[in-house]
Specification:
This protein has five helices and eight strands, in the order ββββαββαβαβαα. By secondary structure, the protein is of the alpha+beta class.
Length: about 170
């Protein structure tokens, strides 16, 4: 999507799963993952910095560039809802396999998955990658239902359920 961004930015452009860019107070500003900034020509040692090296474990990195030069690093992480682990456990009790498909950094995804009891994690995915995995499972006859939070790969949980087959295909094995 393109247009006017929040906070008065102009020439706003969002690339789902990668980042955003806009002109703010006359400067071209981009925020996103390292792949996104490199695609815009903003490269340098900052993009090689790992959050673990900066003393921040279990988070995902958002890099910031101004006028084509890397300018900063923001660590972002998910805050678990208090009942998340219980909800996952209830699904597993019913024989439902819960799988996490996320664009988050693998370390951050693994931390969240371990905290709530999700055993199968696919991290570092773009929205289209997530949708393709769901479609592959559906083609294999698996019943899939899910929801996306911010990436927009699936706009609503009901949309993902609508395209699912009517049978249970995969059950929790442990």
């Amino acid at each position: 999507p393109e247009g006017r961004g929040p906070g008065g930015g102009t020439d706003f452009r969002s690339t789902p799963g990668l980042g955003i860019e806009a002109t703010v107070e006359g400067r071209r500003v981009a925020v996103g993952n390292a792949r996104f900034l490199r695609s815009l020509g903003a490269d340098g040692p900052l993009l090689a910095l790992r959050l673990e090296d900066a003393g921040v474990a279990g988070a995902s990195a958002l890099y910031v560039a101004g006028d084509g030069r890397p300018a900063g690093l923001i660590a972002v992480g998910d805050r678990l809802k208090p009942d998340a682990a219980a909800a996952i456990a209830a699904l597993r009790t019913r024989g439902i396999l819960v799988v996490m498909l996320t664009g988050d950094h693998p370390t951050a995804a693994a931390r969240i998955a371990a905290a709530v009891g999700i055993r199968e994690v696919h991290a570092g995915l773009l929205p289209a990658d997530k949708l393709e995995r769901i479609h592959a499972w559906q083609r294999a006859g698996m019943w899939c239902c899910g929801s996306m939070t911010s990436s927009g790969a699936i706009s609503t949980a009901s949309e993902s359920c609508t395209i699912c087959s009517s049978q249970w295909g995969r059950r929790a094995s442990s």
